[in-house]
Write a structure and sequence with these properties.
Layout (H helix, E strand, L loop, with lengths): L4 H20 L7 E6 L5 E6 H24 L9 H26 L6 H19 L14 H4 L2 H25 L5 H31 L1
Antiparallel strand pairs: 1-2
Helix pairs in contact: 1-2, 1-3, 2-3, 3-4, 4-6, 6-7
């Protein structure tokens, strides 16, 4: 964690940066602000101005600190991979800035295609994570953590190599879907990304893991 101290401090500052923007815009923002949106970008949930401006970034900061603390204190932290750890460091700052910018813009009356922007960001995130997933070795914090992947390094490596390709492909399809939006396809891709690696690793365990135990 020592080598990432400056980056960690910078990311914490960026997470809280929307608070400054919210304070500067305070008089222009309504007392009740949209903080939740449905699949087509229409607001369907509102919160008080203090929570939207102050509470949301502070909540994301708390999640950021907890996530980094757990990751950096993993007994197998050295297996995480420095590039993946750097990606983790930047996820919450990006989420904070994008979410708060979306909330402020909607509260000020700007007409934005929020769902499309969010889908594009998610797609790029999955493509990036999928690219680095095969390089992530066994650990207890990041990756597809199942009993049979944690107990067998070969299972872990094969599962994450397959999942990496799968996430990149699904990320590309999500990116395309951002412009031809089909909600069912988005749900299907999420399920594929979650269930296929789990099923693959279990089948690998049945074929190879039990034989090793014998």
């Amino acid at each position: 964690m020592e080598k990432h101290r400056k980056t960690f401090i910078l990311t914490c500052i960026l997470i809280l940066l929307p608070i400054l923007a919210g304070i500067l815009l305070w008089d222009r923002l309504p007392d009740s602000m949209p903080t939740h949106f449905d699949s087509d970008g229409t607001p369907n949930g509102w919160s008080s101005k203090p929570f939207a401006v102050l509470g949301l970034p502070l909540f994301i900061l708390s999640a950021h600190v907890i996530c980094i603390a757990f990751t950096s204190h993993d007994p197998k932290y050295q297996n995480t991979g420095q590039k993946i750890f750097k990606i983790i460091l930047w996820i919450c700052p990006v989420v904070s800035i994008l979410c708060c910018a979306t909330i402020y813009a909607s509260a000020l009356g700007y007409d934005l295609d929020i769902s499309r922007y969010m889908m594009i960001i998610l797609s790029l995130m999955f493509i990036i994570l999928g690219n680095y997933m095969p390089k992530c070795r066994q650990n207890y914090t990041i990756g597809i953590k199942l009993p049979w992947t944690l107990n067998d390094e070969e299972n872990w490596n094969h599962t994450h190599r397959m999942a990496g390709y799968l996430w990149v492909i699904c990320g590309i399809l999500m990116l395309i879907n951002a412009f031809v939006y089909m909600e069912w396809l988005m749900v299907a891709l999420f399920l594929i990304m979650i269930l296929v690696p789990v099923l693959y690793s279990f089948i690998y365990y049945l074929k190879n893991g039990q034989r090793k135990e014998v």
